[in-house]
Specification:
heterodimer; A: alpha+beta; seven-stranded antiparallel sheet; B: mainly alpha
Chain lengths: 283, 173
């Protein structure tokens, strides 16, 4: 009898392991291939998402009030600095408006309806974050009913923070560029160097130790220097052109000395996200 | 006993509250918890499940079943990779049941049991994530940057929340 129960336990463990492997492989395959998860999963996620708001809204509200008190303490200094920046910004904004207007007129004349730089924005609030060390993922409160589609780029503050990895009806998951899995941070970007040359490439990973995005396999002869701005190039896929990614922090030879490897400081603080913007390209 | 007590509704409600609190804590304190040098993950759901086993006495709470439910919700809602926590959470409950047979549960032995449980949760989820290529972290880096800090945070939470949670369970009985 003793032997029988031991055998049965072993069988249960092995069956559980096999089922677990099968489910994991299946869900990864679905995640990679399909634009939305199965209907049942979507439905479940929507319901759980609604229930989660009961807990998440007070928590986020509490955070807002606590941080506003702490921010009050260094408001004076910040105000001084910001005043200076505002006067510069006003000038840039007026020029930007004029250029946008001119651009629109020129496009009309050429007969161009939309180009790679055109996108509209959906703003969303972050509900919660995945409590796991393996996935840097946040859940936002807009889904397919608001027009969010898988793989759309997501921004916060001044720069790119990640891409949509799963879309449900009323909420969706955003994989941050700090996530180091196989697909999270492959964005096509371009860098305009000081001499005016454009270098294209693809982001290749995130260096957790230094908190910088890395970019491998650049074979150009153009000199890339520290401080050059990195923006998305709009090539291949749903990412519009001209989303700000960050600044070049260091350019060095890669491990084999054949190509250049870049380290890019992200434009926004990726650990503190409250409101994000999903960029929707007109297609 | 279980069917007649307040636990019948109180236990699942507490379970889901803890599940959502995990996410909210991760979001609200993300600057402090998810540093690149040390990642701390809060596992309040595991705390709730382990405490259920520690405090249940004669009330036979169906903890393992609810653990599987919480695991399924965790997988679908938080990670999107189905089939990891749905098996780990019931396994933790089973392990705790086995350990409670050998050591009579009190504050200190509970701390010891919880230490083993958290190690199991983190190690198994690390292995699973390695397998499906969610992470490429080396084993030694996992011990230093994730397991250590996570254990520290969760044991601290255990020390702080042990008596309040015991109070809640006593009230629900």
């Amino acid at each position: 009898m003793q032997k029988f129960s031991f055998n049965r336990r072993l069988v249960i463990i092995i069956v559980c392991l096999i089922v677990s492997f099968a489910l994991m492989t299946l869900s990864v395959a679905i995640r990679n291939k399909r634009s939305t998860p199965p209907l049942i999963q979507q439905f479940g996620n929507d319901i759980v998402g609604l229930a989660d708001r009961v807990v998440a809204l007070p928590a986020n509200g509490l955070k807002g009030s606590v941080s506003s008190v702490s921010e009050l303490l260094n408001t004076y200094q910040e105000n001084q600095q910001l005043k200076k920046q505002v006067s510069e910004l006003a000038q840039t904004k007026v020029r930007d408006q004029t250029l946008a207007k001119e651009n629109k007129q020129l496009k009309k004349e050429v007969g161009l309806n939309s180009s790679l730089t055109d996108y509209s924005a959906i703003s969303a609030a972050v509900i919660t974050r995945t409590p796991s060390s393996w996935q840097n993922q946040v859940i936002i409160n807009k889904g397919s009913s608001a027009g969010v589609i898988k793989n759309m780029p997501v921004m916060s503050g001044s720069g790119l923070i990640g891409r949509i990895s799963e879309v449900n009806k009323t909420n969706s998951k955003v994989e941050l560029i700090t996530d180091n899995n196989d697909s999270a941070n492959r964005f096509a970007v371009s860098i305009t160097t000081k001499s005016g040359k454009t270098v294209n490439g693809v982001l290749s990973g995130f260096n957790a130790d230094s908190g910088q995005i890395t970019m491998n396999n650049i074979t150009t002869k153009a000199k890339i220097s520290k401080g050059d701005k990195v923006v998305t190039s709009g090539l291949g896929g749903v990412t519009p052109k001209g989303l700000y990614v960050g600044k070049v922090a260091k350019a060095s030879g890669d491990d084999y000395g054949l190509s250049t490897k870049l380290y890019i400081t992200p434009a926004t603080d990726l650990s503190d996200l409250n409101i994000v913007t999903v960029a929707v390209t007109k297609q | 006993m279980y069917r007649l007590s307040k636990l019948r509704f109180g236990f699942p409600i507490g379970l889901f509250l803890m599940l959502f609190l995990d996410g909210s804590i991760s979001q609200v304190f993300s600057t402090h918890l998810f540093r690149t040098s040390a990642t701390m993950v809060s596992h309040l759901v595991v705390l709730w499940l382990v405490c259920a086993v520690l405090f249940e006495d004669r009330f036979d709470i169906p903890v393992a079943r609810w653990a599987a439910v919480a695991g399924a919700v965790f997988d679908l809602y938080y990670t999107g990779i189905f089939g990891i926590e749905i098996f780990i959470f019931p396994l933790v409950v089973y392990l705790t049941r086995v350990l409670v047979n050998y050591i009579s549960p009190n504050f200190l032995s509970g701390l010891l049991i919880y230490f083993i449980d958290i190690t199991l949760v983190e190690a198994l989820s690390y292995l699973a994530s390695r397998m499906v290529h969610l992470t490429s972290m080396a084993g030694s880096a996992f011990l230093v940057t994730t397991l250590g800090p996570t254990l520290a945070l969760n044991l601290a939470l255990f020390v702080v929340l042990y008596f309040p949670i015991r109070g809640v369970y006593n009230w629900l009985k």
